[in-house]
From TrEMBL:
<dbReference type="GO" id="GO:0004739">
    <property type="term" value="F:pyruvate dehydrogenase (acetyl-transferring) activity"/>
</dbReference>
<dbReference type="Pfam" id="PF02779">
    <property type="entry name" value="Transket_pyr"/>
</dbReference>
<dbReference type="Pfam" id="PF00676">
    <property type="entry name" value="E1_dh"/>
</dbReference>
<keyword id="KW-0786">Thiamine pyrophosphate</keyword>
<protein>
    <recommendedName>
        <fullName>Transketolase-like pyrimidine-binding domain-containing protein</fullName>
    </recommendedName>
</protein>
<feature type="compositionally biased region" description="Low complexity">
    <location>
        <begin position="1"/>
        <end position="15"/>
    </location>
</feature>
<dbReference type="InterPro" id="IPR033248">
    <property type="entry name" value="Transketolase_C"/>
</dbReference>
<dbReference type="InterPro" id="IPR029061">
    <property type="entry name" value="THDP-binding"/>
</dbReference>
<dbReference type="InterPro" id="IPR009014">
    <property type="entry name" value="Transketo_C/PFOR_II"/>
</dbReference>
<keyword id="KW-0560">Oxidoreductase</keyword>
<dbReference type="InterPro" id="IPR005475">
    <property type="entry name" value="Transketolase-like_Pyr-bd"/>
</dbReference>
<feature type="compositionally biased region" description="Basic and acidic residues">
    <location>
        <begin position="360"/>
        <end position="374"/>
    </location>
</feature>
<dbReference type="GO" id="GO:0006086">
    <property type="term" value="P:pyruvate decarboxylation to acetyl-CoA"/>
</dbReference>
<feature type="region of interest" description="Disordered">
    <location>
        <begin position="1"/>
        <end position="30"/>
    </location>
</feature>
<feature type="domain" description="Transketolase-like pyrimidine-binding">
    <location>
        <begin position="486"/>
        <end position="661"/>
    </location>
</feature>
<dbReference type="Pfam" id="PF02780">
    <property type="entry name" value="Transketolase_C"/>
</dbReference>
<feature type="region of interest" description="Disordered">
    <location>
        <begin position="354"/>
        <end position="374"/>
    </location>
</feature>
């Protein structure tokens, strides 16, 4: 009651004051109470997103400053809105407002460190010591000051390409950051990442991501990892990416940084939905400098009030003047506290960036010089603080000296750090060597702890039903009768259920998961493990691949099931980042992510072009991916088991038109992720007679090739090899076969240009040329969209009859 009276009193006192504009948690509240819709009085001009400081904007300012100037968000008005929209109590508001001299000194010092650091970066860039793209943060120093004030080491931070100061404020050593920019071995990522890719596993700074908006679902995945840690009841967690000690209350949060321009990306809406649906502990920290790269955001975005985007989802938001460090700290503390104790929130910090997008920015073409000149004079958060009364509370000289020393030491460290070894890129291709024996790899916390966690986190009746399903599938697999065995879909489902039962850090994401998707691949997972570990997803593959990346960086082993592998085209950016992460982070973050899906192009498939694309060929060029294919239940089971236990990203392709065909399946067998396998071998007599030929194929080509070999009989002596590993390519097995047959035919389920067969034939020509008695023959899809009609599809997609003709031609 007293709190209500205090709020009412404060509202009356601040009624005629320009207030902070904070989004309400409930969208039903009238927006007219915000100053966004306050009618301007005769002597003032109100523009988005607030009131000009000093009244009406001078008429001689550039248009961009006429329409977007500095705003005012005084604390007296802000606390009213925070009480209403975040439910903050008077005690919580008073605590947030209590900025001690020590805290103020730390905030100012952090701002000065960041200003000095970025200035040194600019000079080093012009001197050629820093190369590539670099994005400076001058003018936005209140944000790292806020991070230093209330974001902890255990919190999971996901930034974007303008990340230097975010990293330093999060506890990353400034010397390591500068050395990374210099491309040195002492850098945070040993020189593999550079300016846009700062990572530090010790402080949980998880990027530095270069594609605008891509960090959003990664951070949601990180927040889910916190959510899952809590649901599993970890007594103290240890996993390969980071550690945290036992705590009485796990109040860690995830923080994701995004610009107001990047927040226009559709990923923002998807992530707000996900955060609200699971009440995730995530802060969306929106850095609003009015520029989407260099474009004036107001010219391209109808809604710049990003802090209000969460209203539809019940997520509260706040807007604060980033030029006022004290207001930023006070409002930021309340918002962060809300995320720690209640759920997701948005904080939009209104700033001005003094520099162009990058040093190469042609600012003279984008009307920015006048704007930047004005911002340095009128909107510098450091100058504004120094001009205020609060600056007298701290020892400025000591703060400045400390900042100067830290930055000088950072530069000295970078200058003296050695270059990374030339072999580092190759050394970081995969976290696991290709010779890894996955059958003996235990969960990271050990089998006993894993079993105890599974038992504690899941109802006994659910685990009993799960074991019954596993027993039934294993019995079917062991049935060698004509009607026995498993379908490819059931074999994959069995592998997934066994691994999720064995290791509680294994998760799964899929569309239509509750119903088992299209081929029963994720069937029974949600019934056994609940909605957190088995997540039914919205229909956007990039979104949930991104969430899986965030989980994988934080100790989980996500499985992503594609209803059709071609749908993963929506997630190409995320899949690329999954492949790059281990190397780009200098080996700090493993990426145990497995993507499984039915795809490929079978003869007479009749699915049309969009469902018949060679997705496996599209992703062959992504570094760090292991790409496997399985055309039988036993291969599917063995590859999936190994892939889930691998510490890097793996893609398992399955034949879309053969998913329900049954066959034998040996359980508890782990297939290597780097080897092809012989399906049949040419007879010595046939080879000696000059009839030898090696046939390489995969997916639907396996069945077509087996039919072709049967039709040829003794006409040819065929080594039939299934490419269960497309990448890395098993050149040892190919070379061994060619040393006998000296002829090679590829039945390839990808296009002539840029296809898998093109890569294989090039490598064979480079590495096995002396073994060939004839040119490599490629029987591949033509460079045309796969048509629906069988009559014309035959001219595009190769099949058994083409292989028969090809083999007869090459051995003639």
């Amino acid at each position: 009651m007293q709190a209500a009276r205090s709020v009412a009193s404060a509202r009356a006192q601040a009624r005629n004051t320009t207030g902070a504009t904070h989004a309400r948690a409930s969208p039903r509240r009238a927006v007219s109470r915000c100053l966004l819709e306050k009618q301007p009085e005769a002597d003032e001009t109100v523009r988005f997103p607030g009131k000009f400081v000093g009244g009406k904007a001078p008429e001689d300012l550039p248009r961009h400053l006429q329409e977007r100037n500095r705003i005012s968000t005084p604390w007296d008005a802000a606390r009213i809105e925070l009480a209403e929209r975040f439910g903050a109590s008077e005690a919580e508001l008073d605590k947030a407002a209590d900025i001690s001299d020590e805290h103020l000194s730390e905030a100012y010092t952090m701002m000065q460190i960041c200003r000095d650091f970025e200035n040194e970066c600019g000079q080093a860039y012009m001197a050629g010591k820093i190369r590539g793209f670099m994005h400076l943060d001058n003018g936005q120093e209140s944000i790292p000051a806020l991070l230093n004030d209330c974001i902890r080491e255990g919190d999971l931070k996901h930034s974007y390409y303008r990340d230097h100061c975010h990293a330093i404020a999060s506890g990353v050593d400034p010397g390591a950051v500068m050395a990374e920019l210099y491309g040195k071995d002492g850098g945070t990522c040993r020189g593999t990442g550079g300016s846009m890719h700062i990572y530090d596993v010790a402080s949980n700074f998880q990027g530095g991501w270069a594609l605008v908006g891509e960090q959003l679902p990664y951070a949601v995945g990180a927040a889910r990892s916190i959510h899952m840690d809590r649901s599993l009841g970890y007594p103290g967690k240890q996993h390969q990416n980071h550690k945290w000690d036992k705590m009485e209350k796990d109040d860690r949060i995830a923080v994701v940084f995004v610009g107001e321009g990047g927040a226009q990306n559709g990923r923002m809406a998807e992530c707000l939905n996900a955060a609200a649906k699971e009440n995730l502990p995530i802060l969306f920290l929106v850095i609003d400098n009015g520029r989407a790269i260099n474009t004036f955001t107001q010219d391209v975005a109808a809604n710049q009030a990003v802090y209000r985007m969460g209203e539809h989802y019940g997520i509260p938001g706040a807007l604060v003047d980033g030029q006022n460090i004290e207001d930023t700290l006070k409002v930021g503390r309340v918002v962060v506290d809300h995320v720690r104790n209640k759920g997701p929130a948005i904080l939009q910090v209104h700033t001005f960036r003094f520099n162009g997008h990058s040093p190469a920015d042609p600012e003279h073409e984008r009307n920015r010089k006048d704007e930047k000149r004005w911002a340095r004079k009128e909107a510098d958060p450091i100058k504004i603080f120094l001009a205020g009364e609060s600056a007298k509370r701290i020892d400025l000289d000591a703060c400045n000296a400390k900042a100067a020393e830290i930055v000088k030491n950072a530069v000295d460290f970078a200058e003296n750090s050695p270059d990374p070894p030339p072999t580092l890129a190759a050394d970081l291709e995969y976290p696991d060597p290709v010779t890894t024996d996955y059958s003996v790899r235990e969960p990271v916390n050990g089998l006993a702890t894993a079993e105890a966690l599974t038992t504690r986190a899941n109802p006994a009746h659910a685990l009993e039903a799960l074991q019954g399903t596993i027993d039934r599938l294993r019995a079917q697999a062991a049935d060698k009768s004509p009607k026995g065995g498993l379908s490819i879909g059931d074999a994959v489902n069995l592998a997934i259920l066994e691994e999720m039962q064995r290791d509680p850090t294994t998760t799964i994401h899929a569309e239509d998961l509750q119903a088992g998707s299209s081929y029963n691949v994720p069937a029974h997972t949600q019934q056994a493990f609940g909605r957190i570990r088995a997540c039914d997803e919205i229909i956007d593959e990039g979104h949930f691949i991104g969430k899986a990346i965030g989980e994988a960086m934080n100790g989980y082993r996500p499985i992503v099931e594609m209803m059709n592998m071609n749908f993963a085209i929506y997630g190409m950016a995320e899949l690329s980042s999954a492949g790059n992460t281990y190397a780009t982070t200098g080996g700090q973050f493993i990426m145990p992510l497995t993507m499984i899906g039915a795809g490929g192009t079978a003869p007479n498939q009749s699915l049309g072009a969009e469902h018949s694309q060679p997705f496996h060929a599209y992703i062959m060029g992504i570094p760090g991916l292991k790409i496997c294919s399985a055309a039988s239940p036993d291969a599917a089971y063995g590859l999936v088991k190994s892939a889930i236990r691998d510490n890097g990203p793996c893609v398992i392709l399955l034949p879309v038109k053969s998913m329900k065909i049954k066959g034998p399946c040996d359980t508890d067998v782990f297939y290597p992720l780097h080897k092809a396998r012989y399906l049949s071998r040419a007879s010595d007599a046939g080879v000696a007679a000059g009839k030898g030929v090696t046939v390489l194929t995969y997916l639907h080509g396996v069945k077509e090739a087996q039919n072709a070999v049967a039709e040829l009989g003794d006409e040819a002596a065929v080594d039939l090899i299934e490419l269960t590993s497309l990448k890395p390519l098993d050149m040892d097995t190919i070379r061994e076969s060619l040393s006998r047959t000296h002829r090679l035919v590829l039945l390839d389920e990808s296009t002539r240009s840029g296809g898998v067969g093109a890569t294989i034939s090039a490598r064979v020509a480079e590495e096995c040329f002396d073994e060939l008695d004839a040119p490599v023959m490629r029987l591949c899809m033509e460079d045309a969209p796969v048509p629906y009609s069988t009559a014309i599809e035959k001219t595009v997609v190769k099949r058994a009859s083409d292989l028969v003709a090809g083999i007869r031609s090459i051995i003639a």
